[in-house]
Amino acid sequence: MEQVTVSGGGGFVDVNTGKQPDLPAALRIALATGQLRRPLVDTLDALIAQLVDGDYRILGPLRLPDGRPLTASAGWPPADDARVTYYRTAIRDGHLPVAVVLADEDRELILDGHHKIAAYRAEDVAPCLIRISPGTAAATETETAC
């Protein structure tokens, strides 16, 4: 788990808005391929800069436990079937594309990765994701790493 404090954030990304962030191509590629650098705070800096001010925990990549619901921040199911098919093929070939969710006490909002989540579900594989949640308390999650 990593921790970060956002001060002067853009405030665009908030679990209550349901908006999707605009991410740079390099970050989208890293998430699509699962090739993430550590620390995650550095890898996700463009996304973190769009959060509302506050303290956050960053966990992952980890597997979403069975039965845990996700809330889409865009239309569901995703409209681009070709992209879902691409990710399904990648998953079958052993790649681990990573989605990003913003979690609060009530839900987990998909910030990036609607097509990835759809592909994982179609392949009956637990999605691989990064969870960003408000707060600084020690994590109690026991999810399996990707």
Please tell me what the overall shape is: globular
What is the tally of helical segments?
A: 5
Average pLDDT for all residues: 88
Strand order of the largest sheet: 1-2-6-4-5-3
Spans of at least 5 consecutive residues with low confidence: none
Helix-and-strand structural type:
alpha/beta
First-last Cα distance = 14 Å
- Main sheet overview: 6 strands, mixed
**What portion of the residues fall into strands of 2 or more residues?**
15-25%
Description:
This is ParB/Sulfiredoxin domain-containing protein. By secondary structure, the protein is α/β, with parallel strands linked by helices. It has one domain. The chain is built from five helices and six strands; from the N terminus they run βαααββαββαβ. A six-stranded mixed beta sheet has the order 1-2-6-4-5-3. Strand 4 and strand 5 form a beta hairpin. The mean pLDDT is 88.
Describe the structure concisely.
The protein is α/β, with parallel strands linked by helices.
Task: Describe the protein's topology.
Elements: E1 2-6, H1 25-33, H2 40-43, H3 45-48, E2 54-63, E3 71-72, H4 81-92, E4 99-103, E5 108-112, H5 114-122, E6 128-134
Parallel strand pairs: 3-5, 4-6
Antiparallel strand pairs: 1-2, 2-6, 4-5
Helix pairs in contact: 4-5
